[in-house]
Amino acid sequence: MAKYERILLKLSGEAMAGPQSFGIDPDRVKDLASEVAAVAQTGIQVGVVVGGGNIFRGIALAAKKMDRVTGDHMGMLATVINSLALQDALEGMGVHTRVMSAIEMHQVAEPYIRRRAIRHLEKGRIVIFAAGTSNPYFSTDTAATLRALEIRAQVIAKATKVDGVYDKDPMKHDDAIMFATIGYTEVLTRSLGVMDSTSIAMCRDNHLPIQVFNLNTPGNIMRMATGEEVGTLIS
User: Fold this and answer.
1) With contact defined as beta carbons under 8 Å apart, do 34 and 28 qualify?
2) Residue 203, domain extent
3) Vertex 58 angle, CA 99 and 232, to 5°
4) Of 19, 35, 63, 226, which is least packed with CB atoms within 10 Å of its CB?
């Protein structure tokens, strides 16, 4: 039994890289696509936002004297590359998918139009939202939150490489404690770094829950979407 009718899945760019530290791993993308497709085939409407960190990260280059705005625009284009790779894998499985870009590039993707996106979802198509918000200084987490609110998703499914939200970095601290549930304000005041502060504040102000879970555990996207207790719920 599905817990949600419509979800927004946020994937990091690094998730597309698989065991390598950069680029796109076709086998990893195919595995991700099969999990997303399985959720969509249950009748749950799925929107997806993919980061671009496996190809390009604007902030890192800004530190190396590149203009931040230029770097962020390059990062947006990286998300388009990832979105097309995921679309290709999904359509190879017979799943109808649309890439909608916040930056117009008619030969590559549809322009993002909110009502059209909702219509695609209602018809059972997976919609991948590319190119962030089209504005520099906004992360793909913020783009995911904005799109989730615009399409009236019931939850942001934030896929990470750890099991949920911890009181400190579990990759560095063996005694880190995971929360089953936590409030938006506590995430902000403790600077827990799950998503950027703009995203958390937008979710809080609009009562949009965030489910944080481990993408590396097979089947977790389905478990989250169907209401199993998995990871951490921020609400």
Assistant:
1) no
2) 6-234
3) 70
4) 19
